[in-house]
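ARCHIVE RECORD
Type: protein–small molecule complex
Small molecule: succinic acid
Source of inputs: curated submission
Record status: active
Notes field left blank by submitter.
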Amino acid sequence: MNSTTATAAPPVPGRDIDPGFVAAYRRDGFVHVPGVISPERAARYAEGALRVAHDHTPFQDGAVFTQLVNAYRVSPVLAELTRDPWLGQVAEALAGVPLRIWHDQVLIKQPHNGAATEFHQDAPYWPHRGSRHALSAWVALVDVPVERGCMTFLPGSQNRTDLRAQDLTDAEDLFRVAPDLVWSRRVTIPLRAGDCTFHNAYTGHGATPNLTDDPRIAHVVIYVDAEASYSGAPHVVTDPLGLEVGAVLPDEHFPPVAAF
Ligand code: SIN
Ligand code: NI
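STRUCTURE (tokenized, with ligand):
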């Protein structure tokens, strides 16, 4: 065990969250939580995710992944995970501000999909104004070894809040806008079913291709500052809602963690 893990015990329900764990997240822009849900719950949600993918048209269904957004609105099973109070509590401790759900995503990398998710930041894609923090909980619903498409992070890259949106199908794009990141450490985190990572929306990250015979099934719960407002930029989640530019994201569509 190295000194980082020794001082950064992962959170356990019913106990205070270790300040060292929060500090590690704030330093690196990501953190690993083994066993955030039980393997039994992960298996149930994996089945729920496959059902949603079968019954609904994905927002994206390409080489990189099959992506369904706002799965919690159509799947009571996945809503249990998206609205999980413990996951939300950990997210708020990391963010240091009250949060709301921005949206969730079922992300399936099909067997032998042949494509990495290339390095990118999430925040530049999103139509938020005045957000003090946004982050994702990437929950593995099946075992995700490196060969099945696990995540890799660029520690410290969350401090680069000035970059344009990057193309996650282009291996060069993030490094084109931030050439110094070519030399960044890369931290790859295989996850067991029920483990998760949290990452800051500005942390550069990608995922390996799925070289295995089984689908990689992840559920990503994405949180944003409860006080963030709508910028008016195009986005699949907000485009149909007719929101007022400059208004705080409405609770009706973006449930506050405090209400879980
Ligand atoms: C992936 O799961 O392949 C990528 C997830 C992300 O970009 O947050
Ligand atoms: Ni991403």
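CURATOR ANNOTATION: The longest strand covers residues 99-109.
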